[in-house]
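Q: Structure tokens for this one, please.
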Amino acid sequence: MVKIPATIKDIARYTGLSIATISKYLNGGSVLEKNRILIEEAIKALDFEVNEIARGLRTNKTMTIGVLIPVFEVFFNTIISSLENILLETGYSVIVCDYRDDEKLEKERLDFLYKKRVDALVVIPTYLKESDIKKIIKRDIPIVAVDRPIEDFECDTVLVNNFEVSYQAVEKLILMGHRKIGIICGPQNIYTAQERLNGYMKAHIDYKISVNEEYIKFGEFHNMESGYKKMIELLEIPNPPTAVFITNYEMTLGAIIAVNEKDIKVPDDLSVIGFDNLEMAKIVKPSLSLVVQPMEEIGEVVASLLLKRLKGDKTDFPLQKKLNAQVLIKNSVKNIV
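A: Here is the predicted structure, written as tokens:
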């Protein structure tokens, strides 16, 4: 026998509450605590399922958040997981799209999320500009940019202190006697890569150390092979660096493989500071010095900001929140003073 789905009227009969009160609760409204308990008991007892499509048409809300990321990797995945944990508690689900560092695909994925009528967007942009998001602006959808601002467009943005933490990493190497410091950067068109290189340059300027252009290598974020190749290039310079700062997780993995392949002893032959993964630092011997970003905190801050904007609270808009990464010096750095 086919089971007839429970309706809002069945919940009203079960609880003795008005349809208006039940409807208010189902659409995210606030009801008395005793009524909430009754309604939730009825939903469970009657096996009631909310018709999300119908509710979306009534409320103009889909209870979904669109997330646009360059690739699936540790940094972005951890942020999404943290973000999703909080949003799920408030009834929101998350649609995640990656654009594989491709400019055309980035715009296509953004358009896909727009057509899905998401209630808000979290974007980690690479090529996006204001002209790419005109439709979204017209619909007044809350947008939070993460890790990098959107070019020519003011919106809420959650960043990490990339300049300052890179300065601190290079400064620690300088204070430990290093003057020949290599850096493996990301692409020059990406904000985070620019900021990390700027921190490296400023530390050299402040300590009156000349910058050797041969020690600056531009790789590709999210590409382990890139870190491998750039580290090989640094190691094969006639006057190689005594220390290398690698500014991205995947490139750090590749660089460590290159160091091992060349049988370079860390830190006796080369001091190394990498990026992001504490678990990797425990596996690599000697323990790897790292810049560690507050990935879970980023997700929590983004979720909190989204929920605030979705309630119509525009206080401090556009907000730019900068969180602090940390430099953790372990056994991969040698004092040569």
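A few notes: The domain at 61-159+295-323 is CATH 3.40.50.2300 (Rossmann fold). The chain has three domains: 8-58, 61-159+295-323, 162-293.
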